[in-house]
């Protein structure tokens, strides 16, 4: 009986660890669509039940102090490092959606959907209108 209880407790903690490992929160490395080179580190975090993502490091040499000159509103001419680029995603099953993502290169904001491909690979989809009209990137956990 003690072995059964110990086994059940083990399974409970293993399940908790697996659930935590399957979170989209954490630090993710982004990549350039054209060159495949690493671009930045984005920290994804949860606040009030929604998901947000902030650029915490610029990996491209010579662009570490870049500002978002093409952005609109309060983000215009602000440093890209430290900028919140993913805002207000809500959970729907295994996907976080109904928020936005900002592309600091062109200042455009898109609807956004993210989900884990596996524990270390995040699928990030930015789109206009419907999800078919957009671009997908894959970020890796660090």
TrEMBL record:
Segments passing through the bilayer: none
Source superkingdom: Bacteria
Any matching Pfam family: DUF2147
Protein name as annotated: DUF2147 domain-containing protein
Organism whose genome encodes this protein: Flavobacterium microcysteis
Record key words, sorted: Signal
InterPro entries: DUF2147
Residues of the DUF2147 domain: 26-141
Residues annotated as signal peptide: 1-21
